[in-house]
Amino acid sequence: MDLKLDHHQDDRLTIVEVEGEIDVYTAPRLRELLIDLVNKGSYHLLVNMEKVDFLDSTGLGVLVGGLKRVRAHDGSLELVCTQERILKIFRITGLTKVFGIYASVDEAKEAHGRDK
Amino acid sequence: MATVELTFSALPAHVRTARLVATAIARRTGVEESLLDEVRLAVGEACSRAVEAHRAHCPGEPIRIELKDDSGRFEVTVSDLAPSDEIKQEQPLDLGALSDSFMSGFGIAVIAGLADDVEVFPSPKGMRIRMSWPAAPNGHVI
Q1: B95 in A contact zone (CB under 8 Å)
Q2: pLDDT band for position B85 (50/70/90)?
Q3: Secondary structure class of B72 (helix, strand, coil)
Q4: How far apart are CA A87 and CA B86, in angstroms?
Q5: Which of A56, A65, A94 lies closest to B44 in CB terms?
Q6: Residue-wise pLDDT tens digits, B48-64
Q7: Where would I find the STAS domain in this sequence (chain A) (predicted)?
Q8: Which range of residues forms the domain containing residue B24?
């Protein structure tokens, strides 16, 4: 499956909906979207990965790059993910300590609200 | 022992094809369903790393994958022709030092975390990554 990307604003958060496979071929599109959002002033990003069925280290690199960009503006990039096969790659690489990972968009919004 | 060999140009679009072929052959060889995601990801990582290395050093050269059904193991070897240095594993995580375009160290770390058995052979003439998983003794022959 190819990669489908969408995004919408929810209060202070920009929610990025990702569906399909994030790999060396498709990751540049996600990178472009994250860069574009940051350039347009969206510094608090929530990437919903519930419909992602494949993620490799190239995809991780794009997410890390996005995190670096938003942090340069005191922003945040957090993830929604409950799929074990996707979470496993975050655990293997130690990135569970770098990203906030939530079980649902509502849970992330609630946590984000508390941090305001 | 039965072997399938695949060569492909160093294009990111072909990595998905390589993943699909490896997963299909793993299934046919009798690798457990619960391990197929690991096979898919590890082979994808090895091929992505090879594609990026070839694009940097020798874009016209093909990448080679060998898939073997060998004594109850499913073995995959991904070979590239780009010069490689020793891989430093278990480096401390430094967010500032990570590139968002290519994290080859991460790729190798992911493979090491996924495959049941991994060997990485870096050399000035290219890198070879061999990985294997248990296959059911009564699995189908390739």
Answers
A1: yes
A2: low
A3: coil
A4: 28
A5: A56
A6: 999 999 999 999 999 99
A7: 3-112
A8: 2-134
